[in-house]
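Subgroup meeting minutes
Present: P.N., E.W., G.H.
Scribe: E.W.

1. P.N. recapped why we're keeping a running log of single-chain structure predictions: easier to compare across weeks, and new members can see raw inputs and outputs side by side.
2. G.H. added today's entry (637 aa).
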Amino acid sequence: MWNTFVSDLRLADVGVGQGSALSPVISTLFIAPIMKLFKLQAIRLGSTLLSYVDDGTAVTQSKSLDDNNTVLKQAYAILFVLFAALGLVLEHDKTELFHFDRSHSNHNLSLDLGYTPYTGDRLLTPKTYWRYLGFYFDRKLLFTEHVWYYATKSFSTVQVMGMLGNSMRGLSPLEKHLLYRACVLPIAMYGFRLWFFEGTKNKTAFKILTQMQRKAALWITGAFHTSPTGGTEALAGLIPVHLHLRKLADRANLRITTLSDTHPIWSLLSADYVKQAEVHHCSVSNMAPALQDKGHGSIMEIENHHHELTEVFEPCVPENRPGFRLMDRFVAQVSFNDFKINMENEALSVTNRKIELDALIDELKDDEHVVYCGTDASLPANIWHQAALAYLIYRQGDVVHRARYIASRVTTPDAELYTIRAAIVKACSLPDVNNITLFTDSIASARRAMNPSIHSGQGHSLAVCRALEQWFANGGRSVTFVMVHSRFEWGPHHEAHEFVRGLPPVGGRCMATSLNSLCKKATATCLDSWSTMFQNEKYWGHNFLLLQNLNRGIVQPTYAKGGSWLGEVGEVFHVPHQFQLDSTGFHWNPLEYLSKFGRENVNIPVESSGMEFLIECQLDSTSLQKESMPVDSTGFL
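Output recorded in log:
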């Protein structure tokens, strides 16, 4: 069956291979009617059936384990009859039982399933921990075992990574940082929404994960094992675990809005957010107001925060179907003229690009069937002001239309996407136009404008795709996006830049928000909290060197691009040295020399303060004499 087409009946005498893409599809076709029939027959029992491909789970809830076992036995009997009626087999020996119980009793009742092998004298014994889809559940839903399992797995991975490099050879610190964040941290954070939410007590979980990250930070920096955790994490560019989890949770709350209107999560929220989902009997809407105030969990956190995002998404939009996307149907009519500056010969590269752009604009001016656009966006320095954008449309050298807009609280890529949308939609409405050329300083936003899938600013992309789809229908038409760096101060793009800068700042109280803007805000909030922690000497240690930036401010920790320290020196540091600071200046010696000849044979002034730290580096005698590297007197780690 495909859409409305139904084939003739055929004998299926060949099975589906292990791991085949058809397995989940066929499982759904067979199990979907079973779930529907089970819901009708087991409604009197109060039991619910969940299914993930071929892994089914019958759930029931009551005030005693004996009542639960009675209902589960009856529900299993109903399932056995339904499966047998469709020619399917239930493997009784793979059945598992698990009781959730918040009481202080250790009572864990076994179940007589009624089918071999779990019947008679041999009962189905409940497990202490239940593993389901990679999550480890305990009876009281504390998820201590889950955290222990994945923290231990991450810790073991960090231990093994020690073979890939040390302070003498192998991977550079920056590469170690990237490896940890890409391959270890996702393992440790797996399923964190089960146990991390507002109001929960997870001090033990934080302790376990902090120990794991400390081991990674020591490996990345090559620091001594007695080094303070906070200072080592700052040098390694690793944000504290609890702040990283807070950032991930805040972003997850926002991404709920990208789910389809029938997603099960909507059924668990209050009536205002149910959308097209069927209300669950345990949803927030069925909870008493007093219970809602006392309740904690990921669902309650989503309920309280996801409405902060005002952007609307269309997960199942027809324009995003494979084979029907704009770039699937009209790929030959859309082109991107990208450009990257050659930093080895920057001046020549910029000059040649300007010559190329001048030739292109002269060619466009000569064609009366061509319009070209200059677009630009501007974000205010004040967070209480709104982003602004503008575009100008030219035909044969004359401006035929121009406009400026405000875009509420968005990021730069969102604003650039908005101005591209406005320019394209307007250009498509102009008469007698066969080609549209758009000059922008964000070619990534131009590519996103052709992408109808879910992303921040999807509404703008859908507007562009729909306008171009109608415009391309006449044939012989094309669109070209040309990259123009802002530093060029060239042509239509620079005129659009000056046009948007002429718009005075516009404020607002309840501004619309985009997904990217709120994700950026969540990240900034966590970084601010990290900076606040960094002000405490107990966090970074007594002998941590507080460096200053060019503005004479203390360098603040971050994890972007390797962090404040590794991001600058992580790729060029190779050989471990020992640094010392005293009244006469800097002194350093390779650690290999120290280990071979002993500290007493090294020329270190008697006046030395003895404040040292370990780092991998390659420096000459002039590298530490730059005025841009003032040193705070607190010393070294």
